[in-house]
Amino acid sequence: MVERPNESEWIHRAMQGDDNAFAMLVEVYQVPVYNLCYRMLGNPMEAEDAAQEAFLRAYKGINRYDPERRFATWLLSIASHHCIDRLRRRKYPIRSLDELLPWQQKADDMPGPETALTQKENQEAVRKMLEQLGDHDRMVLILRYWYDLSYEEIAQSLSSSVSAVKSRLHRARRQLADQWIKRTSIEVGKQGRCDEASAF
Amino acid sequence: MKHQPFESWLYERETLTKDQTRDLEDHLEICASCRALATAWADVEGQILSASLIAPAPGFSRRWRTYLADHRRRISHRQMGVLLLTTAVGLAVLSVLFGAELLPSLQQAVPTLVSWVGKVANLVANLNVFRLVMGILVEATLENIPLVYRVVLPLSLAGLAAFWVFSLYRLNYRRITKGVIS
Ligand SMILES: [Zn+2]
Question: Which of B45, B55, B65 lies closest to A34 in CB terms?
Fold first, then answer.
């Protein structure tokens, strides 16, 4: 996420109480913030509410923003803390919609029908596997892969240490690899049984 | 076969040195178990890297403005509620604390208040008498004062008053000017 030329001006004006300038920042950062909330909470409605609340918290705390820091990182940090808080308060496990809503279909995913199906299944499998991770481990993974944050930036965003971030990322990757192997072996087993049945 | 530290290195490739990366690749050549993990992680990582950002429903910024307005309204209602509640509680506490003490005092003060009202009424009546007496005196005195004095005396008094006001003004003005210069 590269900062726009006008961004520092909008931030400056927002810090002086200009609501329109802050609305411009909302316009620019709605997708990254919403995506973070969606990946963490797994539900479009809750993600929408969490993203709105994250922007509200940023709006109220804009005067605490340190211009030396990247605005995107600061904003994602607020959204991350808010999502973790929500998950902590939540008593039921993540329950996402099976299908993405129409506006959530990604424009760059336009392969052929068969490839598209496999791709969709794989994406769905990865999404479910992500949901199995611990909240903090999932957050570290999301910040690393979707936002390309450095270990230091992730640590700063989550009020954690670099070594803790590395350890969480390591654990998340290992867990995902283990789950992928299990999934693949189950599918191979299913495939084998289908082949045997069709031979008879 | 010994899998460590290679199994751990699979998930930390970006932090490995060149030698460690070469050692890991050598191990993967001969270890099917670590190779399976490496392939699995590469698959998952590929899926994650190919997943793009998901956008909210159109009109997010518009909904944000509504969200902000709702928040402000809630805060305003809450503040008004807190104010009313605090006032009500304060009045209730005051009446509980001092009500019992103030009620007898108020009852005792009634005769005093009545007598004060009488005194004020007397004073007003006396003032009327005083004005009447003073009017008669002034009238009698004016009749005995020559016309020259009747004109000169007020003019002198007016001149003195003007001089007094001018002196006060000069004193204040000079003090301010000095204050500014210093
Ligand atoms: Zn091995």
Answer: B55
Find tokens 């008053």 and name the residue: B161
> Mind listing the pLDDT tens digit for each residue in B76-128?
999 999 999 999 999 888 888 777 777 777 787 888 889 999 999 999 988 98
Residues of B in contact with A103 (CB under 8 A): 55-58
Q: By the 8 A CB rule, do B26 and B2 touch?
A: no
**In chain A, which segments carry CATH 1.10.1740.10?**
1-96
Pick the CATH number of A103-200 from 3.40.50.10320, 3.40.50.2300, 1.10.3720.10, 1.10.10.10: 1.10.10.10
**What distance lies between CA B101 and its chain's CA centroid?**
35
Percent of chain B past pLDDT 70, that is, above it, reads 93
Interface test with A, best of B8, B11, B71 (most A CBs within 10 A): B11
CATH number of A1-96: 1.10.1740.10
Backbone angles phi, psi at A107, to 5 degrees: -65, -30
Q: State how far the Cα of B56 lies from the Cα of A47, in Å rounded to an integer.
A: 8
Residues in A closer than 8 angstroms to B43, CB to CB, are 122, 180
pLDDT in tens, A148-195: 999 999 999 999 999 999 999 999 999 999 999 998 877 766 666 655
Q: Model-level pTM?
A: 0.69
> For chain B, which residues make up each domain, given as ranges?
6-50, 111-144, 147-182
Q: In chain A, where does the domain assigned CATH 1.10.10.10 lie?
A: 103-200
Question: Which chain B residues have a beta carbon less than 8 Å from that of A59?
Answer: 68
CA of A194 vs chain B CAs: smallest distance (Å): 24
Contacts of residue A61, defined as CB under 8 A and 6 or more positions apart, other chains included, come to A78
